[in-house]
Specification:
- The protein is mostly helical and 207 residues long.
- The chain has one domain: Hypothetical protein af1432.
- The chain is 52% helix and 0% strand.
- Helix 7 packs across helix 8.
- The longest helix has 19 residues.
- It is globular, with a radius of gyration of 16 Å.
């Protein structure tokens, strides 16, 4: 599957869903975080793109001009699309991944880029797909980018992705409480996460 382009009509549909999420968040005056998945790990791969998109947009509207939110939302919603190129036995594996499986999983940001035609998705959205697992201190993947070497869009996505993930039921981990997730993000400020993005996230959560 790597190297396969998404059918244009499928990409249009996915971008339309992302745009509807952007519109919904933009129309709200509150910062209510989405309810994390209570349907078990089988629902995670469906619910995670939606939840991470909402969280990222709530953070992003504190850091970005309003006209940038649609690109951010598109990137957030598509950030894990590269997992479609991975064996289901890895994506849905209960318990920890073996080293070779983890090496393959870490390719999903780059695999995700291969689904897009050159101009089918904006460069800012592609930054999210490629770099949402980069970390402020350079410990992330796929390129070990440090600090602002990773674009702001992807630094926002890093926080949204992790918070929604750790507070959701996944095949390899039980859901943590939202409070635990907030404290994890707070503790990662300046190491895993951009301090400015963490500050905006904590403003959203009221902590």
């Amino acid at each position: 599957m790597p190297g396969t382009l998404l059918p244009p009509e499928m990409l249009v549909e996915l971008k339309d869903v992302a745009a509807r999420i952007v519109d919904e968040v933009a129309s709200r005056d509150d910062d209510l975080l989405p309810v994390m998945n209570g349907n078990g790990p089988a629902a995670y791969n469906v619910e995670h793109p939606i939840g991470a998109t909402v969280i990222g947009l709530l953070v992003g509207r504190r850091l970005l001009p309003e006209e940038s939110l649609e690109e951010l939302g598109t990137g957030l919603f598509l950030q894990d699309i590269g997992k479609l190129a991975l064996p289901a036995s890895i994506v849905h594996k209960p318990g920890p991944l073996a080293p070779a499986e983890w090496d393959l999983m870490m390719q999903h940001p780059l695999l995700g880029l291969e689904f897009f035609r050159g101009d089918s998705v904006s460069n800012q959205a592609k930054h999210v797909v490629r770099s949402h697992h980069e970390r402020w201190d350079g410990s992330g993947y796929p390129s070990g980018l440090v600090g602002e070497e990773a674009p702001l869009f992807s630094r926002i996505a890093a926080v949204a992705d992790v918070f929604h993930a750790v507070t959701s039921e996944r095949y390899h981990a039980r859901a943590r409480t939202p409070h635990w997730g907030v404290e994890m993000i707070r503790a990662g400020s300046g190491s895993a996460f951009d301090p400015a993005v963490v500050a905006a996230f904590l403003d959203v959560t009221g902590d």
